[in-house]
Every structure is written in structure tokens, then in C-alpha cells.
Design goal:
Elements lengths: L18 H8 L5 H14 L6 H17 L5 H22 L9 H11 L4 H8 L7 H13 L3 H4 L7 H13 L4
Length: 178
Amino acid sequence: MSSDADPDRAVRDLSTWTVGRLETLTATQQGQELERIRVVAQAHVYRSGEPRSARLRWAKLSLHANARLPGDSSWSRARKTRQNFALRTWVIDHLGPDTDPDWEPAVLVADTLAALTLDPDRAVALAARWRDLPVGQIGELRRHKNMTAHLDRLVDFVPPGPARDRLVTWTQARTHLP
């Protein structure tokens, strides 16, 4: 691990590590090292030459590292949530849905809707006058926009009904958010 306190220590090339080795490392790391692991694992997920099962294991590692990233501010939580939703949607879209809850569209829909604290109509109403809002409310609108970026791809995996209607409403609302 590279550290500002120890600039002579060599930076590890985590991209050459096995998934098992990185899983073990993830359990003991904090801070930027977890972000490095998340990025390396996610890159493996995108490699089409690897078997589906290996790519799903890398995806789980990326989600785990992401969940362990520090930060409890509203921006940190939203960033981790956005990363989670984006990767899960990519896996569902490119590797196919699965019975594992992380790759089950209905579970991702429920997780997404639970993360959104605003009603879409309220978000659009606030966005219409966003320049007059306090910085905190503008931030809340931005976080909602970021946390709904995956919905246009996810909606195709959701059967007609109230959940799908809600996603479509959010996809439309998103275009109005700052």
C-alpha cells in the first residue's frame, strides 16, 4: 500500500493480483486502497474474455470494496450508492439477471427507490427554481440525478406495473434536475 507517510514504499500493482488475494486484502484495508481495489475489480468485470462466474466474483469484490469505503457524508453515501447501482445495472444488462439479489432487477429497483428520498414530482418542482434554492437542496437534487443515472437501462428488465411506472417517472424527472 502506498502511503504519504512512507513515500519510499513501492506502490503495489493490484491489477496483477488474483481475485482471492484482493478479497483477503479488502477485509483489512481502509481509505484509498479500497478505492483502488474497487476500480481494479470493476475493470475485471468488464473483461469479456473472462468466464461469467469469474466476472460475477469480481463484481462482488467491487461492491464489497465500495461498501467499505469511508465517508458518512450525504455526498459519500450517494457516491457509494451510485457506484453500486451502476455496477449492478451493468452486470444485469451485460451478463444477465440472476437469482443472486445483487443481480436481480426487482431487488435493484427496490434498493433504488429506497435510496431516493424525494418524490419525483417534488424533485421536478424544486428543479424548476433550483437557482433560488439553498446549496443543500441543490445538492440533494444533484445526488438524486446521480443516483438515477442507471434507470434508463434498468427499466427494460422490469415488467409492467407500479415499480416500472415509478422508474419511468424518475427517468423523466431526471432530465429536469440540475
